[in-house]
Amino acid sequence: MKITLLTVGKTEDSYLREGIEKYVKRLKHYIKLELLDLAELKNTKALSQDQQKAREAEMILKKITPLDYVILLDEKGSELSSTQFANTINKHMVGAASHVVFIVGGPYGFDSSVYQRANNKLSLSHMTFSHQMVRLFFIEQLYRAFTIIKGEPYHHE
């Protein structure tokens, strides 16, 4: 199974990039992982929030295939414990999903077309985080999930 983290925009802060790189390096022992950053929209001042979401949706939908299992990182999604998330990842690994794509949207969230395409939604918290920070939090939770699956001493109950 392959996992892709598809994001709108780049991680700008060096401390976040360093944290992401740390966990990406660790994850290479468990899974094929791709980080795919889509370019942020330019000249958005003349665009409404809905227009921005629609343009981002066009970019997102071009990067996924009909066979991909798509999970949106979205505040309206299900909240799982780390162990529940590990169980979800494990089910995908032993199931039919050969490619799971997690998507972090832009600052205004997702267009309805992306919601329609998604197979699932996952929330990391009831709190709202910057889409920059969500990347690090998610990558760490993905690493934690694999250590739980493998029974390694990273996660403590």
UniProtKB/TrEMBL annotation:
Q: Where is it localised?
A: Cytoplasm
The EC class name is transferase
Residues that coordinate or bind S-adenosyl-L-methionine:
L73, G105, L124, S125, H126, M127, T128, F129
Ribosomal protein recorded as keyword: no
| Assembly, per entry | Homodimer.
> What is the documented function of this protein?
Specifically methylates the pseudouridine at position 1915 (m3Psi1915) in 23S rRNA.
Report what the protein is called.
Answer: Ribosomal RNA large subunit methyltransferase H
Per the UniProt entry, what species is this protein from, by scientific name? Answer: Mucilaginibacter roseus
What gene codes for this chain?
A: rlmH
